[in-house]
């Protein structure tokens, strides 16, 4: 009887789960709302309960699994299985996440950062396409990333590897929540696109639907900016061009350092598809070293919301040999 894996993708609003086989195929998936009340103290008990309920429902016991993998926001201590500084979850102080889940479900657990998990997912079953060297960038409410080199996640000395959102693309630019200025996150995240739109709208003298939306109560979203650019709005195209110039520049830096086979772009903003990919690729090629330009490909992510749980489940593959 082949054993399976459990993946957990913990987010600020939703927690996603999956039972996954050793080949990375999803056997079952489900989700629950993330309860961040009382400093996030209900999150771990809810995870334990949800997995226990699902195991009973599907007639599984702990013996049917190798272990659990989990992707989470915040700073992860992989050895201790603790998480700290996940402010969107209310986790300001160190949380013994791993030990609690493991003890309750009687399975070993491996925890990593959420962007790393999504990177593993795309590497294993998505746009990674059997390549051993892949970089994943996620453009959502923030900008995250994960680096897979020679088939392994790169973590760095203090788990800071792959912080693609904090590459400086505009020295002295917008102030970032991390405390420094000009980070890619402030220009290429969903919130960043809107912030840039507001600034570029101020100096635009023509007529644009963007200005109407900014002046109305409807408000402007990044999705709308890309939609309008697609439909020929001059200001929207100017905004998208600026966003892509920053993104292409940052990705060329990554390309020049790592020369991965694929740089995969995911997250909500990537739903803009070619409207985002084409100009970004152009700026990437402009700034990449020739041998990198000729070999590293920019691609759109393929797994959507499943990247996180599939990648998290793959963290548990290391328990196969125990």
Automatic annotation (TrEMBL):
SUPFAM superfamilies: Actin-like ATPase domain. Keywords: ATP-binding, Kinase, Nucleotide-binding, Transferase. Gene3D superfamilies: 3.30.420.40. Its EC number is 2.7.1.2. It comes from the Bacteria. The keyword Cytoplasm does not apply. Pfam families: ROK (PF00480). Belongs to the ROK (NagC/XylR) family. This is Glucokinase. It comes from Lentilactobacillus fungorum. The lineage of its organism: Bacteria, Bacillati, Bacillota, Bacilli, Lactobacillales.
């Amino acid at each position: 009887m082949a054993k399976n894996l459990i993946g957990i993708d913990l987010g600020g609003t939703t927690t996603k789960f999956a039972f996954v086989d050793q080949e990375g195929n999803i056997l079952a998936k489900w989700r629950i709302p993330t309860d961040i009340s009382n400093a996030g103290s209900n999150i771990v008990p809810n995870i334990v309960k949800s997995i226990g309920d699902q195991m009973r429902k599907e007639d599984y016991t702990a013996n049917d699994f190798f272990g659990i993998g989990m992707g989470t926001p915040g700073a992860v201590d992989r050895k201790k299985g603790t998480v700290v500084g996940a402010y969107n979850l209310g986790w300001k102080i160190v949380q013994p996440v791993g030990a609690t889940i493991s003890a309750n479900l009687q399975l070993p657990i491996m925890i990593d950062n959420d962007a790393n998990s999504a990177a593993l997912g795309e590497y294993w079953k998505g746009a990674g396409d059997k390549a051993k060297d892949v970089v994943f960038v996620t453009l959502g409410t923030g900008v995250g990333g994960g680096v897979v080199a020679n088939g392994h996640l790169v973590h760095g000395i203090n788990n800071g590897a792959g912080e693609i959102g904090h590459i400086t693309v505009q020295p002295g630019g917008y102030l970032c929540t991390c405390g420094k200025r000009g980070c890619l996150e402030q220009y290429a995240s969903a919130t960043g696109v809107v912030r840039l739109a507001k600034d570029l709208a101020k100096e635009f003298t023509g007529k644009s639907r963007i200005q109407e939306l900014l002046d109305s109560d409807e408000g402007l979203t990044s999705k709308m900016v890309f939609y309008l650019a697609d439909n020929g709005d001059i200001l929207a195209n100017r905004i998208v061009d600026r966003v892509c110039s920053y993104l292409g520049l940052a990705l060329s830096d990554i390309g020049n350092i790592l020369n991965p086979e694929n740089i995969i772009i995911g997250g909500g903003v990537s739903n803009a598809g070619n409207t985002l990919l084409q100009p970004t690729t152009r700026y990437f090629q402009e700034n990449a070293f020739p041998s990198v330009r000729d070999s590293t490909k920019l691609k759109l992510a393929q797994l959507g919301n499943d990247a996180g749980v599939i990648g998290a489940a793959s963290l548990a593959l290391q328990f196969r040999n125990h």
